[in-house]
Amino acid sequence: METIRFLHTADLHLDSPFKGMTAAGSNELARLQQSTFAAFDRFIDYAVKVQPDFIVIVGDLYDGEDRSLRAQIRFQQGMQRLFEKEIPVFITYGNHDHLAGSWTRVSLPANVQVFSEEVEQKQLSVRDETVYLHGFSYPQRHVTEPMIADYPVASGDGIHIGLLHGSVAGDAAHAVYAPFTVSELQEKNYHYWALGHIHKRQQLAEEPPVVYPGNLQGRHRKEQGLKGFYDVSITREKASLKFVGTSDIVFNRLTVSCEGIDYADDWVTRCQEAIAGLVAESGSAVVELVMEDMEGLANDLQRASSEAEWLDILREQYSGIEPFVWISSIEWPAVSNDEVPKALLEPVEQTLESWQADEWDGLVKDIYSHRAGRYLERLTPNDTEQLKQQAAALLAAELLKEG
Question: CA 97, 250, 281 angle in degrees (round to 5)?
Fold first, then answer.
């Protein structure tokens, strides 16, 4: 039986603004914004090298409905390289780059086929096998109704692949777009489901493979770890998947033990050693540092200066060098409230605990309504809980300083 080989990617988000990086300087921000293009180039380099039978890209090629001109040109150049190698590419557009957006048009070479707003079938012949691809592009940003009913049931010979940019019905962790259930996908009798929209790499089923490849490049602290795409080999009977990493910059949360530290310079060295190990493993990185084993003089570091100053000290060690390293935050253990009079802390803690979700939303609504709001991440229940803890710890630390 003929084996078909294709690459499955999604959620390129070319030219992403990178949320939550407002503290970065212009040089650092430029380096971050270049990373989506660098990851895309790695994907194209791999495709040119291995020359698969075809490629599927399942939605959100661009970060916004305006499809920035720079992003379109870079994408067009990538498609041209694939055209020169005669590699077909099949594209669906998602909720971020839907068809109702307004953008300056850039032509794509003849090897690229784009799915329309209605579920449709495209096909190609690969040696002695026929491949049928089924999918659609978002006609507008919000496609909240199920689209799976419009996908035909596979019949006859050939290999059938479904392209669907959407989310599992009932998944409260993500916005609902083109919802489906795994059983609904399986009922179509396809040989592979190429999904997009969820940026976490995951396989929802094995028979047939139902796969989110994640995105090519993490864009904020919630998209941690190595990102990439899948190299898929498939017949009518079975499929094998190989994950290929493309991240130009990896977001990571790094725990640093402060055991035995007596001086501030020892602490800086300990952090650098931990970061060096991370960079040796994953390359350029955006790092959240988490301190543990605080004791002795090391426990006084948090009180000696502000987090901003400690961040500046660490960031200076990596300024203007490669691999790129950006320290995004330092998380200290909470200061023991036993050291602070309860009468001072309790009113604040009780107030924070009493706030409901809509009150938190009210506090931040002015920030998100500002034009800079698109660069900020939305607060999750976990975020608000962390904010409560950090606020209490910050107040305790400040009170101890005053004491």
Answer: 150
Average pLDDT over residues 63-88: 95
Residue 370 has pLDDT above 60, yes or no: no
Joined together, the tokens standing for residue 21 give 């990086």
pLDDT band at 363 (very low <50, low <70, confident <90, very high): low
Q: What is the mean pLDDT of residues 154-166?
A: 94
Q: Do the beta carbons of residue 231 and residue 7 sit within 8 Å?
A: yes
Give 34's contacts (C-beta < 8 A, 6+ positions apart): 248
Distances in whole angstroms, Cα of residue 364 to Cα of each of 91, 218, 336: 37, 25, 29
What are the tens digits of pLDDT across the range 232-243? 999 999 999 999
Question: Residues 6 or more apart from 123 whose CB is under 8 A from it?
Answer: 130, 131, 132, 133, 158
In 3D, which of 120, 121, 56, 64 has the Cα closest to residue 82? 56
The answer to whether the peptide bond before residue 52 is cis (omega within 30 degrees of 0) is no
> Whole-angstrom Cα distance, residue 183 to residue 298?
54
Q: Which of 59, 225, 49 is nearest to 141 (CA)?
A: 59
Residue 24: how many other CB atoms lie within 10 Å: 18
Q: pLDDT averaged over the chain?
A: 87
